[in-house]
């Protein structure tokens, strides 16, 4: 019997039809070439193989049919065919839709990119968190050292701006120097990390008010992005504290940690909003479109590791190109401005590396997909 008569039916119905035509002893329909269906056999040149198992004598139930080879219209079935049979099958099949072919190509490209990101994580998983923490505290380390070498200039600036007197201005500079350098040492040594993060949060708030950053939208958004990196560092320290009893079953990660990771991701993307340029040049248009798409992916937690890794590469390239402070003489004010921007951008890169290393957390689309 030809195969085409059974292609539109379900597998169970085909089995019933074959058994009904082949007798009550379970031998089934004689196949092409006379082979019985009692063992593995083929129809139409090896496309289908079935096995019939029944009881001796009259059947009390239908036999069980097992599909041993994939159907001819699937890609796996074509690969299993000989060259001649595959050529005949492809000639009968309708041509693929262009939109479907394009979607398959995009899925293959996305899968390749995700495989590359996973391979990168496997190779660097022992070093990536340390590099992320070093990048994250780099702006605090640079600013603390600058407070030491520019003590008099910083003190005079605070005294002139706020008219607070020599003593209060000196206290402000000393508090910034001690707080930032101490926090950096604690973070790098991984001791009292939570207290160090709270202290660095206080330094950010103090500088935002003292240097009138609150009224400068660009600097305010960058400071908020820096706070997002500290939130991710705080979430990492909480996970380390909860993993001290290895092998003990635990509940799902606590809500505070989940929302700290969410807040950290959302605040980190504010850094990229300061890089958007609203002009008609081709480079700016491409940069705005790609950057906005990646920011949204990181914020909602979809394809998070791949998007964050792409942002790390892109932001590092922009940082080295636009904030090359080493090309400016030290005595020029632009040197300090570019240096400040460079290390603050490196801190945001450190936060993104923490996202790559630790994942997006529970409040994300990547995590919800596991439950679907």
Automatic annotation (TrEMBL):
Signal peptide: none annotated. Keywords: Endoplasmic reticulum, Golgi apparatus, Membrane, Protein transport, Transmembrane, Transmembrane helix, Transport. It is a multi-pass membrane protein. It is found in: Endoplasmic reticulum membrane; Endoplasmic reticulum-Golgi intermediate compartment membrane; Golgi apparatus membrane. GO terms for biological process: Golgi organization; protein transport. The keyword Membrane applies. PROSITE patterns: SURF4. The chain crosses the membrane at residues 165-188, 195-214, 282-302, 309-330, 342-363. Residues 19-46 are annotated as: Disordered. GO terms for cellular component: endoplasmic reticulum membrane; endoplasmic reticulum-Golgi intermediate compartment membrane; Golgi membrane. Belongs to the SURF4 family. This is Surfeit locus protein 4. It comes from Myodes glareolus (Bank vole). The lineage of its organism: Eukaryota, Metazoa, Chordata, Craniata, Vertebrata.
């Amino acid at each position: 019997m030809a195969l085409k008569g059974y292609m539109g039916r379900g597998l169970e119905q085909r089995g019933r039809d074959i058994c009904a035509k082949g007798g009550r002893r379970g031998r089934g329909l004689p196949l092409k070439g006379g082979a019985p269906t009692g063992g593995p056999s083929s129809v139409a040149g090896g496309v289908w193989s079935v096995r019939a198992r029944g009881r001796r004598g009259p059947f009390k139930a239908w036999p069980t049919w097992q599909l041993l080879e994939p159907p001819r219209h699937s890609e796996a079935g074509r690969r299993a065919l000989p060259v001649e049979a595959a050529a005949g099958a492809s000639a009968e099949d309708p041509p693929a839709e262009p939109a479907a072919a394009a979607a398959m190509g995009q899925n293959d490209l996305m899968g390749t990119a995700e495989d590359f990101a996973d391979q990168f994580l496997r190779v660097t998983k022992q070093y990536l968190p340390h590099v992320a923490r070093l990048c994250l505290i780099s702006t605090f380390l640079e600013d603390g050292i600058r407070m030491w070498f520019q003590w008099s200039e910083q003190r005079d600036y605070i005294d002139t701006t706020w008219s607070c007197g020599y003593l209060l201005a000196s206290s402000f500079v000393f508090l910034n120097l001690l707080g930032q350098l101490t926090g950096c040492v604690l973070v790098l040594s991984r001791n009292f990390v939570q207290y160090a993060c709270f202290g660095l949060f206080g330094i950010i708030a103090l500088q935002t008010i003292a240097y009138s950053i609150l009224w400068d939208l660009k600097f305010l958004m960058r400071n908020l992005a820096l706070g997002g990196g500290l939130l991710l560092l705080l979430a990492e320290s909480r996970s380390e504290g909860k993993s001290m009893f290895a092998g003990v079953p635990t509940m799902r990660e606590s809500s505070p940690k989940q929302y700290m990771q969410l807040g950290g991701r959302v605040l980190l993307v504010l850094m990229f909003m300061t890089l958007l340029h609203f002009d008609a040049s081709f480079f700016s248009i491409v940069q705005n479109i790609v950057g906005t798409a990646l920011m949204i992916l990181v914020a909602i937690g979809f394809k998070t590791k791949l998007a964050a890794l792409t942002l790390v590469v892109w932001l590092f390239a922009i940082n080295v190109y636009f904030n090359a402070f080493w090309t400016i003489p030290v005595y020029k004010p632009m040197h300090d401005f570019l240096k400040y921007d460079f290390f603050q951008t490196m801190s945001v890169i450190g936060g993104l590396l923490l996202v790559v290393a630790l994942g997006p957390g529970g409040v994300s689309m990547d995590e919800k997909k596991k439950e679907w």
